[in-house]
């Protein structure tokens, strides 16, 4: 998907992911941070360059690098993917941040910007989020958003080490968006 979407607010700026971001992204990635992803850890510039090239080339995916709005520091990456406009649905994920941005305003800010774009500009009715069942940190973050737990797809993913993982699915519908938006705005107000 060739996208030119740029989103900014709440201290972050999301711009289209590019190969030039690979060195900074690779420097923040390790096995623990990458836990629950379905591709090998891209912890070298070469591996991250391949990862970014794949993300950029994937049909129906808008991949972003997350920057600090004031300083331009690379904080991580996130995507809207499996985008099917005719069905008014998209998934939000493939998200990772450098550890110093865990637990603060970065993730809620990015989620707010991406969801606001999806629901209010792109006309999406259903936004899904998913995580490996072993990834407690991601599951807690998704739950805190107010997303509805839909179920578990058993042995849905093969991890880079060959193990099979269950995928936990959540969703937010357009009619639920105002409540989710208000929760995110309240969290960001607390962080400020």
UniProtKB/TrEMBL annotation:
Keywords from the named record: Transferase
GO MF: acyltransferase activity, transferring groups other than amino-acyl groups
InterPro entries listed in its UniProt record: Acyl_CoA_acyltransferase, GNAT_dom
Boundaries of every N-acetyltransferase domain copy: 13-147
Transmembrane region(s): none
Protein's recorded name: Protein N-acetyltransferase, RimJ/RimL family
Source organism: Sanguibacter gelidistatuariae
Lineage, highest ranks first: Bacteria, Bacillati, Actinomycetota, Actinomycetes, Micrococcales
